[in-house]
Amino acid sequence: MMKIHSLYLVLSAGILSVSSIFAQDPVRDDDINGDIAFGKSELSAGDDLIFPIGDHSYTNAVDLILDNPKFTIFSKMLRETGLDTVLRSRDSITIFAPTDNAFEKYTEAEVAAMMKPSNRDKLNRLLGFHVLPTTLTAMMLTEEVTAQTMIKDLKVDIRTRVDDGDVVLVVGGLAKVVAADVKTKNGMIHAIDRVLFPADNKSES
Q: Concatenated DSSP letters for 53-65?
């Protein structure tokens, strides 16, 4: 399987390393930011539905992800860090949820390294980069913006671009939204096709 980049190569070569991913301070309660931020998304799920058709407005966003077989790796990370409990208690969130396909760019060993107990605090921080502390729909995300994540010192760029005549949303410099505006009891879910890393977060021109 071809990998877009290996987590074991150095950042100076243009590739993200495990050490650079987990070189930041752990997330703590006082790192959580409650301020509102903006962004945008576009539905492009194709024939293979990522979320079942129906009303999910009575389901917690976290539970909808945990129960979906297309998010098994992201779900496992949420459970192992305890962030599933933290996010389940939040009243208003937006989650950019990487599908299992997003993790195919990495080997099983690389994913396992991310979930080692010794890297737990760094994984908390990485997962927090995928969550905004407010509910944002596609209509609210019509401009190119930089959105505050749940980690106080981390913001994520949200840009639109045209691919093969279709307008798509790009989050964090590389990830495309592949299913947008999944409304839940406590927020919104937008599925993405790549894992978000702060080092990749560059504005699209």
A: SS--TTS-HHHHH
What CATH class does 11-23+35-200 carry?
Answer: mainly beta
Question: DSSP letter string over 160-205?
Answer: EEEETTEEEEEETTTEEEEEEEEEETTEEEEEESS---GGG-----
Contact predicate 117/71, CB 8 Å = no
Q: How far apart are CA 107 and CA 3, in angstroms?
A: 8
- The answer to whether residues 110 and 119 touch, using CB atoms and an 8 Å cutoff, is no
Per-residue pLDDT reduced to its tens digit, 65-81: 999 999 999 999 999 99
Question: Cβ-count burial of 73 within 10 angstroms (0-12 exposed, 13-18 middle, 19+ buried)?
Answer: buried
pLDDT in tens, 101-114: 999 999 999 999 99
Domain residues of the chain, as ranges?
A: 11-23+35-200
What per-residue confidence (pLDDT) applies to 48?
59
Task: Confirm if 204 and 108 have CB atoms less than 8 A apart.
Answer: no
Amino acid (one-letter) located at 31: D
Check: CB of residue 4 under 8 Å from CB of residue 105: yes
pLDDT tens by residue, 136-162: 877 677 677 888 999 999 999 888 878
How far apart CA 93 and CA 137 sit, in angstroms, is: 11
CA angle 28, 127, 170 (to 5 degrees): 135
Decide: pTM greater than 0.70: yes
Coil/strand/helix, residue 86: helix
